[in-house]
């Protein structure tokens, strides 16, 4: 039975290839766009992800995401350190600055100031140099992408000079920091030096980062919030709050959702029309099988086996194309660096594809089940 179905499927090569390519195209659109959307959302929490040792983030109560921060007074650090259960607490600043190279290239950058003593919050991976190099005079670390923006086409070297808000800085390290949401240049330096690079303002402390001792970070965050009046969140809670802000306050989900739905719609249309034509042209064969004694259930299983083969091949091709895309761009130092295809996205795409295939071919299945065996003699 299944052999007959495969012979029917392979007998019409044009429609067979059309079905496979339709499934592959839908799979490519769904997986690629969903994975890019996930990667974009992950970039909104880049500084949180890089600061892996931090368990609790303390900030002003009106802060609702990472990119826009209302600074706190310097006394906030002492107040947090005085809360029972705090193993350690250090300052961390995040500000937008203007970086200018000696040859006149200008880029907007995100400057992260790390605690002078511990350097907690530094990116976990360095391409050149190390966190300790930030202790050198006028030292900063720049991410690989930012380096290529500031000095395009030039090899990675240390010692280059750059002006940050008209103050001299020297590249002492090159990091592999997680890309920011706006793909800005990422700079890291010490907290004290970062204060010198920004205009004089009363409050410069963006965050106090801390960790618990002898209890959960969630319990410590609740205690810090109660005793200091500041907003204190665990690392996971701060990530969720930031991502939720971008999900609900920007048009990003709608834009990516439209593309994903377009992939589903186009795939369903191609599959539905092509498979309907395939069934129409083979109704006499289905009728002949019925006339020879094949019941509706067996006939339906045969058609579903044809559909399953087309879906499996098309999904494999589309998934391979999407994975190849992310391998090509994710390992580079460009705008899409770090993007990848999560396994759960592939699994979700497979489930969505199964539903799409069934809905797109439902009417064709009904036509097969209702075919009159007498059609053979007409």
Poorly predicted runs of 5 or more residues: none
Tally of extended strands?
10
Radius of gyration (Å): 29 Å
Average pLDDT figure = 84
SSE class: alpha+beta
Q: N-to-C terminal Cα separation, in Å?
A: 24 Å
The number of domains: 2
- Strand arrangement across the biggest beta sheet: 2-3-8-5-7-6
* Percentage of residues in DSSP E strands: 15-25%
Tell me the series of helices and strands, N- to C-terminal: HHHEHEEEEHEEEHEHEHHHHHH
Work out the helix count: 13
Largest sheet: 6 strands, mixed, barrel
Summarize the structure.
The protein is an alpha+beta fold and 378 residues long. Helices cover 52% and strands 17% of the residues. The chain starts with a helix and ends in an 8-residue tail after the last helix.
Give an overview of the whole structure.
α2 packs antiparallel against α9. The protein starts with a helix and ends in an 8-residue tail after the last helix. It is built from 13 helices and ten strands. With 378 residues, the protein is of the alpha+beta class. It is elongated and about 90 Å long. β2 (86-101) and β3 form a beta hairpin. Helix content is 52%, strand content 17%. The longest helix has 35 residues, at 296-330. Strands 2-3-8-5-7-6 form a six-stranded mixed beta barrel.
Give a topology summary.
Elements: H1 2-11, H2 13-43, H3 46-50, E1 56-59, H4 75-81, E2 86-101, E3 106-114, E4 126-128, E5 139-143, H5 144-150, E6 161-164, E7 167-175, E8 185-190, H6 191-197, E9 207-212, H7 217-228, E10 231-234, H8 235-249, H9 252-281, H10 283-291, H11 296-330, H12 343-360, H13 362-370
Parallel strand pairs: 3-8, 5-7
Antiparallel strand pairs: 1-9, 1-10, 2-3, 2-6, 2-9, 4-7, 5-8, 6-7
């Amino acid at each position: 039975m299944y052999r007959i179905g495969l012979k029917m499927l392979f007998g019409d090569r044009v429609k067979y290839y059309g079905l496979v390519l339709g499934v592959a195209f839908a799979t490519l659109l769904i997986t690629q766009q969903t994975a890019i959307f996930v990667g974009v959302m992950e970039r909104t929490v880049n500084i949180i992800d890089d600061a892996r040792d931090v368990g609790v983030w303390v900030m002003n109560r009106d802060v609702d995401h990472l990119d826009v921060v209302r600074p706190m007074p310097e006394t906030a650090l002492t107040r947090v350190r005085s809360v029972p259960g705090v193993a350690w607490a250090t300052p961390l600043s995040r500000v937008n600055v203007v970086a200018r190279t000696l040859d006149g290239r200008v880029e907007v950058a995100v400057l992260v100031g790390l605690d002078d003593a511990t350097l907690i919050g530094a990116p976990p991976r360095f391409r050149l140099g190390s966190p300790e190099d930030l202790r050198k005079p006028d030292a900063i670390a720049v991410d690989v992408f930012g380096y290529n923006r500031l000095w395009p086409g030039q090899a990675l070297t240390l010692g280059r000079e750059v002006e940050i808000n008209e103050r001299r800085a020297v590249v002492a390290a090159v990091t592999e920091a997680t890309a920011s949401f706006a793909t800005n240049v990422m700079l890291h330096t010490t907290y004290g030096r970062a204060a010198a690079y920004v205009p004089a303002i009363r409050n410069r402390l963006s965050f106090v980062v801390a960790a618990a001792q002898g209890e959960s970070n969630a319990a410590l965050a609740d205690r810090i919030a109660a005793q200091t009046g500041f907003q204190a969140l665990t690392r996971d809670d701060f990530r969720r709050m930031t991502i939720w802000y971008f999900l609900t306050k920007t048009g990003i989900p709608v834009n990516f959702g439209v593309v994903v739905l377009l992939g589903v719609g186009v795939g369903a249309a191609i599959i539905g029309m092509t498979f309907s034509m395939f069934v129409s042209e083979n109704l006499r064969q289905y009728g002949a099988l019925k006339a020879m004694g094949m019941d509706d259930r067996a006939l339906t299983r045969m058609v579903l086996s044809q559909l399953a083969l087309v879906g499996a091949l098309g999904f494999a091709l589309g998934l391979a194309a999407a994975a190849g895309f992310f391998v090509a761009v994710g390992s580079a130092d460009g705008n899409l660096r770090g993007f990848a295809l999560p396994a759960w996205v592939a699994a979700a795409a497979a489930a969505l594809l199964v539903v799409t295939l069934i809905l797109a071919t439902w009417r064709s299945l009904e036509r097969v089940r209702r075919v009159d065996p007498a059609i053979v003699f007409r």
